[in-house]
Amino acid sequence: MKKSFSLLLILALSLVLFACSNKKEPKTKDNPESISNEKERRVILPEIEEQVIYDEHNVTVKTKKGKPTIDYSGSILIPISVANKNDKDVDIDIQNVKVNGITVSYDNANAYQCQAMPNLIAASAKIRLSSDILRIIENNKLGDIKFDLVLAIEGEDEIIKKDLEIVTSLSGKTEQKFKPKGKTLYNKNGIKLIVAEKLYDLDSGKSMRFYFVNESDSFVNFISTGKYLINGTDIHGGFSFALNPSEKMITEVLLMNMTLEENKIKLPIKSIYFSLKGTDAQIMGNEIIEAFKVNLEFQN
């Protein structure tokens, strides 16, 4: 009886880990060889073999054999399994995601975050690369995937493992050219920020695209401050994006239809106003770039 209860408990914990990382999505009719974004541009998905991508501190993360899939929102899902042999909870975070050699997300919003229960034998989960990554991929191939893994074992110091790699059938064949186009917002001390001079159309709204180069020694975090105006209306929001030293990033700030409707902002979007400041994200409160104003105008 005791043994049966233990097996049921392990199964329950596995389901909990899976549930906190993934939602059940409706089936799609996508070609298994490729997927499309809002512009119907095909993106080729690679084959992925089963491989151990992390196996330290009694935590093991493996990929599963097969191709990534696509969910209802256009996000790429990479199946993995997670095991935790510790007697403590372990928070697992994937950050600083690079696709085809370019950073596309520093935080975990586009990837994976969950808590692995103690003595978890194996749980299925998925790394999620959101649909905005598809728009950023310029050569239509998802090949090289790298990221940082952050572990927080209950009661212990955080552990960071940098530049872990998922090897795919397209690895080494998909280096992406970094070609910033747009208005330069900042260019000093090895830190360069450019914004595209057009908005990108999405099913769910619009997006502003930023190109970020950090050749400084600081972990730079740009944060919007003060008013954030769209067509002269303050939407009472904000955004931020961060980048490690010696890296390049392409990122997007989404302007959701829901937000525009709630603030009674009518299309087309003709102007966007905000202020930005830069901080060193590793030193609390250390401002390295004074706030500056950005006023963008768009021809629609």
Describe the structure.
The relative contact order is 0.13. This protein folds into 2 domains: 2-166, Immunoglobulin-like, CATH 2.60.40; 183-297, Immunoglobulin-like (Sandwich), CATH 2.60.40. It is built from 3 helices and 22 strands. It has helices at residues 2-21, 132-136, 257-262; strands at 34-36, 42-44, 51-56, 59-63, 69-70, 76-84, 90-99, 102-105, 112-116, 120-129, 145-153, 159-166, 183-188, 191-195, 200-202, 205-214, 220-230, 233-234, 240-243, 247-256, 271-280, 287-297. It is mainly beta and 300 residues long. The longest helix is centred in the first third of the chain and has 20 residues, at 2-21.
Strand content: over 45%
In terms of quaternary structure, what is this?
A: single chain
Q: And the CATH topology of the largest domain?
A: Immunoglobulin-like
Number of domains: 2
The low-confidence runs, each spanning 5 or more residues with pLDDT under 50, are 1-41
**First-to-last CA distance:** 69 Å
- What's the overall geometry? globular
The biggest sheet, with number of strands, parallel, antiparallel or mixed sense and barrel status, is: 5 strands, antiparallel
- What is the CATH architecture term of the largest domain? Sandwich
Order of helices and strands: HEEEEEEEEEEHEEEEEEEEEEHEE
Indicate the percent of residues in helices: 10-25%
Task: Please provide the count of β strands.
Answer: 22
Overall CATH class of the largest domain: Mainly Beta
Number of helices: 3
Rg from C-alpha positions?
21 Å
Mean pLDDT: 81
